[in-house]
Design a protein that fits this description.
By secondary structure, the protein is an all-alpha fold. The protein has one domain.
Length: about 220
Amino acid sequence: MSTHKNKLWLRWSAANALSEVFGLGATFAAIALLLPKIERQQTAGILLAFAVSVVCGAIEATVVGLAQWWAMRPWFPQIRRSDWWRATLIGALLGYAIGYLPSALLHIRATTQTPIAEPPQWVTLLLAAGLGIVAGAVLSFAQWWVLRNKVRSARLWVPANMLAWAVGMPVIFWGMDLAFSMTTTSQRVCIIGGTLLVTGAIVGVIHGRFLMVLSQVK
């Protein structure tokens, strides 16, 4: 593996790690501040909370999309910043809609019926991996649309993201579960920040490896 390829991989992985900390962290913070006030309104509040959660995904999409474009720019000068940001935004909004819909439906059920018992952690993590596969496909489809006529082997981008998020999503679920078992806010913030950093790095390392193939760097 050449030094030039290593530079792309490291730059991409670092950009993903840091942008997930700030982008996803800011998204979670916005959701955490807004949702408790909205969800008190029963079913209407839950539906509104779902909409707010999806819209807040634009924060992560903007930070991650711009960071990714910066990382890939020297190797992919044919990709415009506005195109990559727009594709990332579309994928993120659809991904958030898919990701938050089951939770919204369960909350609505809990207001009208007996709440469903929480499954064992291994089941939750397995479901998170499945969610990651679906979310990875959704998140990357619009990006693939940007790449398809400009980059050779662009078809690899969607399965690359599916694999990356199949690994990354369980890490987020595990980290969040651990964070909310803590007793102080500072502990929770540190664990959530660390979880997002590790998740971003893992995801970036995995689909960054595929990006190296797409770059056709010799």
